[in-house]
Give the backbone structure.
Amino acid sequence: MENVLELKNVTKAYDGFMLHDINIILPKGCIMGFIGENGAGKSTTIKLILNLIHRDSGEIKVFGKENIANNLEIKEDIGVVFDESNFPDTMNASDVNVVMKNIYKKWDAPAFFSYLTRFSLPLKKSIKEYSRGMKMKLSIAAALSHHAKLLILDEATSGLDPVVRDEILDVFLEFIQDEEHAVFISSHITSDLEKAADYITLIHNGQILFSESKDELLDEYGVLKCSAADYESIDKEIVFGCRKNTFGVEALIKRKALRGDYIVDSASIEDIMLFRIKGEVK
Amino acid sequence: MKGLIIKDLFALRKQGKMILMIAVFYTIFSVFTKNISMLGAMIALLCTMMPITTMSFDEYCKWDRYALAMPVSGKTIVLSKYVLGLLLTLAGLVVISAASIGIVIITGEMPVSDALFTCFCIGVISLALQSVLLPILFKFGVEKGRFLLLPVFLIPAAVIFLLSKLGFTLPDAQTLKMLAYLSPAAVVPLIILSVFISIGIYSKKEF
Amino acid sequence: MDIIISNSNEKPIYDQIASQIKNLIMTGELKTGDALPSMRLLAKELRISVITTKRAYEDLERDGFIESVTGKGSFVSAGNTEFLREQQLRIVEGHLQKAVDAAKMSGIASDELIEIVSMLYRED
């Protein structure tokens, strides 16, 4: 099994929105950042992977197995974290342990408690009194405590302060030390992914704009800054979005294809995302 | 399924204290009035409402999508609500028995037939109500389904009212008792049908 | 073993890592047979993609500095470091030749050139 996650030509139509021909490959041992605006189709894609909604066509394989036919088997090895805590408020961390123990075959209570300690989560305080950060950490602790091989996070870090997000990033990097593991994280906080993602997939209006190695992306693209006059003389083939202001032009370009001496800044993941989504080539 | 039921019980924890107080109050009340019927009605109502309350919790904290992301099938989730209802109903019967024993101790009278009859009625009514309500709630959710609950309670009452107005009298106590003893034969298939319908509804849902 | 990378440096990160390790080998801080940290550990500690560290190690292996054994890790090669140093010197000489040629062409004296070289050393 080389790929932990494979989506082939996946399509799903809703009233007024369509997820169209989604192709994603996540090799084992890697972290993939799944980015896009709100409403672009990130959550829909994740729900299709998890079988929470039905797909219209296409194929989805997790750990090399077809995801609908092997639903329950696959779920034993997937750790999921959504954007909110999904446990009833009246429960506490110790209750969560009891519930999960009876759901997952490989539930590891000692591991769960050690994560609770690491995250400073109290055992007997009810979830109602948790801060948002604590709720997330609880969900993450649960996701990591049943020997999962694939971690799927759906906007799990939005709304968290940078300190907490950093702690969580460390946890993912540890998770990925095992080459058989993989992480699929959808987020619009691109700075987090900038640090440690191996692959970045951008989805916009239900379609994948690109799915590439993060290093290649950062190498490939640059932000050209020049005058409007200079911009006119540039071959538009190499431009992937531009933004004109009163004093000049900024454009996302492929570095290597640019001839001539211009100011080209490095492009961040966020730049690439913004330019490709918003800045039409004019 | 065990995990799901445990989770539901944890969710009911806070309510549980209030329910316990109500149960104790009515138990004492029934012992002093030597009449179990009020207690019986209360218990039937509570047993029916509690699985529904857990469904409302589930909706509020989006539990279903989380559960389905775990090795839990939709079928299991549906069944767990029925099993929960059954367990709570059984617990309710235990309470009735306790009240009966209380009456025996205080008055020396043995309201065996009374107690048995009340037990049957609670069990049957409660399970029948659940069989009708659960599929409706699975289909429409608790927020919207709430409005449909009222008719379910009112229609039988209205029908009985109408029938009596039209000159049909209620069958006498003996016949009623006989019907009650025979009712499990109707309720068991009803429950099974309800389970199948609920599973069908749930499998088509998207989360 | 210290590996310091800079995001503002023009050189791609995998190149920075490869250079630093080459340097450690050539100065003798990393000896023949020494084990290098695993690609994954390095990626985690430096907070970069494992694809980057993999590329750095692949480059090092291609250039003969290290050997990777599947299942065991990467080790400093028993290659002749003296020989490799010679190679590097030749590359440096080549670059300097170009600088000297350009200097001569614009009439820049040798001590001015040496001054520039010293300044560049200090900058790094």
Residues 81-123 of chain C form one domain. Chain C has a mean pLDDT of 86. Helices of chain C lie at 13-26, 39-46, 50-62, 81-105, 110-123.
